[in-house]
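Human: Here is a favour to ask of a fellow structure person. Comparing notes only helps if you start from a blank page. Give me a protein, with the fold worked out from its sequence. Please set it down just below, with no commentary around it:

Assistant:
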Amino acid sequence: MGQLTSGERSLGAAILIIMVILGIAMAAAGRADTMGVHGAIVLFYSLGLLVLLMSGSFGAEPDPARFTRYYDDPIKVGVGLTLAWAIFGMFIGVWAASQLAWPALNFDTSWASFGRIRPAHTNGVIFGFGGNALITTSYHVVQRTSRARLAGQFSPWFVLFGFNLFCLIAVSGYFLGVTQSKEYAEAEWYADIWLVIVWVTYLVLYVRTLAQRKEPHIYVANWYYLAFILVVAILHIVNNLAVPISFAHSKSYTIWAGVQDSMVQWWYGHNAVAFFLTAGFLGMLYYYLPKRADRPIFSYRLSILSFWGITFFYMWAGSHHLHYTALPHWVQNLGMTFSVMLLVPSWASAGNALLTLNGAWHKVRDDATLRFIMMAAFFYGLSTFEGSFLAIRPVNSLSHYTDWTVGHVHSGALGWVAMITFGSLYTLVPAIWKRERMYSDTLVEVHFWLALIGTLIYVFAMWNSGIIQGLMWRTYSPDNTLVYSFVDSLVEMYPYYIARAFGGLLFLLGAIVASYNVWMTVRLPRVVSDDSREDLPLGAGQSDHVAHPVAE
């Protein structure tokens, strides 16, 4: 709070008071409905932040010299939130996976049923863990590559805490049984409206920061972050257009009907993968890989080519989720064609990353953090190849609705998204807290092997499970009847579901190790550096000494 002026604190207090009033109104109007519970969450969340804000309201005005430094306080809080959501989301994922092997783990309660904890897991990991990681690293990257401080003092906090309020409302709603039944878009209508407000603020903040940059060109990592922010806003608004049954009830109905609803949903769903789980994390890759390897990106032109290829091709690929449905055949063909074409720009980024390591493979051998980033690039290439392959209609006839798709998703989610995130955090944390290195390189090494082994066990179990499922479901006897019942296929899946839960448990343990390592790193004494080489924005007594992350 010490970096906020009295005017900024007053603005924050005014917004939080409005949120308190809104929470009371939601609780009163909703009563026994889920909206009432969410009103209470908004109320107590806002009150907690208001107390925190008011505790520093009578302090001295901040030192004007703060503008000569990067604004890293929101980044530090974002790191903590990222790791907290990682542990929560992955724990729920292990629980959900275990329920498939041991159904009694729902404890005969509705809130703990698989249908409720599964979206809590996906949203906790994608939005809680992934979203906080993207916001946090984007704050770090845009400042360093622009050589300019974030354009606002208050708005970075509004985006960070506002986004986490959305995550809390969404996940708690799933436990309570409220959902729109849209993949990755299950949140209630009022949560969707709140996210639009937060996300537009995020977009304005990011653009304003780029506009006041001291660096002449916009480095490619910012292209990816900006595409992620802008396109996710468009996707979210269009897919979540809905009419609530009343303003005192959480239930709403989408304005889209029938096959149009399915088409819009998977236009959103696959582009959420494209621009939330791909473009944003490619922004991380293009900054933290050159930074950690201490080498320029292999080809700046190739990174631009990849950006425009991904931006154009991904938009048309979503309909491959709807093969063999009522969707018009030509739309299915369109999705299949663009999915196959998408392999080119995707492998361009994966290849660009791996070629950047030419001449630095000895660092990959010795540095587990760099190995996280390298393995993430490998899994990105693997997942994008598999995605293009599974989008082909004859292949999809075998894989669709099976665990093969689950294995594909998690090779990307664990192998690509989580590994690039942890590699980025291990690079970011010592730099932000001014530490020489992480608390324990051995723990980073332990985390790497837990994550890699857990991912491989999970993915190989689901690949085997999915292919067996697909073959059993399409095996006919000579008299043209199914040979195996659905229950027969479940029996065959049992050992693979145990392996899946074990692989997820290893990955969860790795996240816990990472959180401990980060916490102990923060507690290390600060490294006293030479002021002439301090990490400062351009124009703050720093020009030639500012280290640029990459060379063209």
In short: Residues 543-552 have pLDDT under 50 and may be disordered. The first strand starts at residue 242 and ends at 244.
